[in-house]
Design brief:
three-stranded antiparallel beta sheet, alpha/beta, binds 2-phosphoglycolic acid, globular, about 250 residues, about 30% helix, single chain, 11 strands
Length: about 250
């Protein structure tokens, strides 16, 4: 595992963009795994900036998002499809038909989860997966206790996640209690991962993920078994780490 410690969220977005853009140059049709939440916003800002400057081309890119709330229409302003359109897809030269977000209103959710997993496999797998991390160590919506071999499926959100995400909704009761998420096994199949984290409030989580035991109680710790993962984290998020890491 490579750990890069940067000054602030802006640097985090730039560094992660450098990693992904470097890899994009090697392939004509790049398969990118995407995440939502406040953390990847600096990454998407940088994507947009470089696309407008003609330095990054999304015209042949295919994307798969990690997760989506069950029950929210794609047009709902808190759905992850809406988030992706607003914060990235509407501002770069990507073809919407090449962007995939799990369908939270599918009639048969189980079947749509299997179909999502199959689509990723059939296209040859994800080249680079972007991840954030929840305060409870979740990646995607793989909450503590998730099977480390899990594939795309329905997950019930933890109390902590519901509280964390309540800030985006009018009231806590409006936060959906279930979501579709790629599994930890799905994430482990990706070729490369970049995990972003910022803020002092995530310092304990990052310590547990990087230097703690591999356990389903901290789902991100499973990445210790991934062949190619880079953590790009801010200084204030790295204060609890005890080993020596790269600082830029
Ligand atoms: P955040 O969420 O980026 O809004 O902190 C991260 C996550 O829950 O994965």
């Amino acid at each position: 595992m490579r750990v890069i410690i940067v000054k602030d969220p802006e640097e985090m977005g730039k560094k992660a963009t450098d990693l992904i853009a470097g890899e994009m140059k090697k392939k004509t049709s790049f398969i990118l795994g995407l995440a939502t939440g406040s953390t990847p916003l600096s990454l998407y800002k940088e994507f947009i900036k470089r696309n407008k400057a003609g330095e990054m081309d999304f015209s042949t890119m295919i994307t798969f998002n990690l997760d989506e709330y069950i029950g929210l229409e794609p047009t709902h302003n808190q759905s992850y499809r809406y988030f992706m359109n607003e914060n990235l897809f509407d501002h770069v030269n990507i073809l919407k038909k090449n962007t995939h977000v799990p369908n939270g209103i599918a009639e048969d959710i189980d079947a749509s989860c299997q179909e999502y997993e199959k689509m990723i496999d059939e296209i040859g797998g994800i080249d680079y997966q972007v991840l954030g991390i929840g305060g409870n160590g979740h990646i995607g919506f793989n909450e503590p206790g998730s099977s480390l071999g899990s594939l795309t499926r329905i997950k019930t959100l933890s109390t902590e996640t519901i509280s964390d995400n309540a800030r985006f909704f009018e009231k806590k009761e409006d936060v959906p209690t279930q979501a579709i998420t790629m599994g930890i096994g799905t994430i482990m199949k990706t070729k490369k991962v970049v995990l972003l984290a910022s803020g002092a409030n995530k310092a304990d989580t990052i310590k547990a993920a990087l230097e703690g035991p591999i356990t389903s109680m901290c789902p991100s710790s499973a990445l210790q078994l991934h062949r190619f993962v880079t953590y790009v984290i801010t200084e204030d998020c790295a204060t609890k780490l005890t080993l020596n890491y790269e600082t830029v």
